[in-house]
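REVIEWER CHECKLIST
Item 1: Sequence provided? yes
Item 2: Single chain? yes
Item 3: Sequence as submitted:
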Amino acid sequence: MKRMLIAVVALSAISAAAVAEEFPALQRVPVLEEAIPSTNPAIKLVRGARVRFAPRQPTTLHRHPISVAGVVTAGSFIFKREGEPEKVIKAGDPFFEPAGVTIEKFDNASSTEPAELIAFYLTDTKDRPLIELLGAK
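Item 4: Structure as written out by the authors:
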């Protein structure tokens, strides 16, 4: 039994080494680095959500009591944080919504195609509200 275990471990190591040789080294390219504002509660929980937008669908003026980081997974959005210029973010692009900052636009940029994002809410408890709607634009 001991010899069989040693043989399995040795074959696993050889197999792992062979697989590693077939692929280039992983590359990590920075795509997002944002400071967590002091208004954010101590992060004890990350909550994730997939959010789908219909063509032309806007968000209302809003802000978050916690910071939100995410990535666009389909389509593109018109994104504007208070005090910053409007920009278009598309599939693969990251975004960050700092706690307490008003988001003036986060709208589907297409009038014909849906759009989708995955958001990660950096919170302290699952009971904390994720968003505060501020009314119409």
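Item 5: Key structural point noted by reviewer: DSSP finds one helix and nine strands in the chain.
Item 6: Recommendation: ____
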